[in-house]
Amino acid sequence: MTDTNPVYAAIAYLLAIATSALLLRLLPKAASHVRHTGESRYGSIDGLRGYLAFGVFIHHAIITWFYLRTGVIDFPPSNFYSQLGQASVALFFMITGFLFWSRLLKQGRDHDWQAFAVSRVFRLYPLYLPLMLIVFVTVFYLQDWALKDSGPQLVGQVLAWLTFDRPDINQYPQSGMLISNVTWTLAYEVFFYLALPLLGLVFIYRGHWLQVVLCLIGIYTLYQVVGWEHSLKKHFLASFLGGIAAAYWVRRPQLAAWGRTGIATVIALLALVLVMTLYKRAFNLMPLLLLTVFFVIVASGNPLFGALRLRSVRWLGEVSYSTYLLHGYVLWIMAQQLPHLVPFNPQNPMLYLLLMAVCSCLLIVIASLTFLYIEKPGIDAGRKFLQWLRQNRQNPKKLAEKAVQER
Predict the structure, then answer these.
(1) Rg, Å, the chain Cα set
(2) I want to staple 88 with a disulfide (CB 3.0 to 4.6 A). Which of 55, 149, 316, 335 is the partner?
């Protein structure tokens, strides 16, 4: 097994897509969900999510391979496998920036901030909370249920994990490695969500200059507060700008139409290939610009020769959050714990490849089930909670109006 051969990634993707296609046949709920989302305005982005989340898994699988052999956790020596993780995260940030900035541009001052806040909480936490519980239980199991930290310290650790930080749990070293430390990106997402109203006041609503100054101060303060725990890096946050640029691009019909042409497809793929082959890091100026070119074209509705419109790929996109959040733990179980139960050497190249093939299929099965039975019910619960909030807000008004009428 060499570290530079992209064939391994291609095989893993094919296995994931095949597993997804099989699940769509076996799970009527999944097939129905894909049918309902098939006419999405941003169908190409839905498909892109699937490739990105699974790319992060492959990236961490390669990191795990080198860790098993050397005991060192580092980026893969191959630009391609390094970018499968970094470029995927940068594009995820662009998707977030694009979707929510597009909504701001469309709705303006009518934007429903209450619905936005509720939807984000019920999107992130229904799956994250069970995973967090699993991580804490796993740590105590590995430590034979011995309590090494005080109660207040454990409470602090729980609160930190609830905000997507990853301090060591009960003195277990590198506790975040149980999930490949994937939650660091959620801190950036949360910062963007919290800053979005202030950004809207500065760049879209455009009030008095004093309002602009106060909002900029608020954004900086928020950056410091969130960054106090998570050490937010400005060049990572720059990825969101690519998505915001795409939001303006697609509002011009001529530009969006060009983005769906064959020449645009070639340019998008060329930009992506350049990033994946020439650059070791995604969060620098040139690779971010190239990724922005790629993303702007995809956001225009370009399916990249149909690769983003396959039903199986769109399902991978639907379960991308589960795939992203759970893959680290699945990888840890399969690569580092399974060898203790079933005697085999994961440092053997062929055995590791076979293990990753099984892991690729298993991950999509687990992600599909957690989406259907945890994520989607959580999203639906958020809608019901929002409806309950609105009803409770309206009822006092109706009672007051009725009292006035009775007088």
Answers:
(1) 23
(2) 55
Q: Which domain holds residue 175?
A: 7-406
Q: Is residue 132 part of a domain?
A: yes
Report how far Cα 136 is from the mean position of its chain's Cα atoms.
22
Whether residue 1 is contained in a domain is answered as no
- Structurally, the chain folds into a number of domains equal to 1
Q: Identify the DSSP state of 169.
A: B
DSSP 172: B
3-state secondary structure at position 206:
coil
Residue 172: φ, ψ to 5° = -80, 120
CA angle 104–110–114, rounded 5-degree value: 85
Residue 18 to residue 4: CA distance in whole angstroms: 24
Tell me whether residue 176 is in a domain.
yes
pTM of the model: 0.93
Q: Are 295 and 246 in contact (CB under 8 A)?
A: yes
What do you get for the CA distance between the two ends of the chain, in Å? 84
| Mean of per-residue pLDDT scores for the chain | 92
Q: 50, 317 in Cβ contact below 8 A?
A: yes
- pLDDT > 80? residue 228: no
| DSSP output for 334-399 | IIIIHHHHS---TTSHHHHHHHHHHHHHHHHHHHHHHIIIIIHHHHHHHHHHHHHHHHHHHHHHHH
Rounded distance between C-alpha atoms, residue 300 and residue 389, angstroms:
36
Confidence of residue 40 (pLDDT cuts 50, 70, 90): low
Tokens standing for residue 260: 């769906």
In angstroms, the Cα distances linking 325 to 24, 129, 161, 179, 332 are 21, 11, 14, 8, 13
Mapped onto helix, strand or coil, the DSSP state of residue 230 is: helix
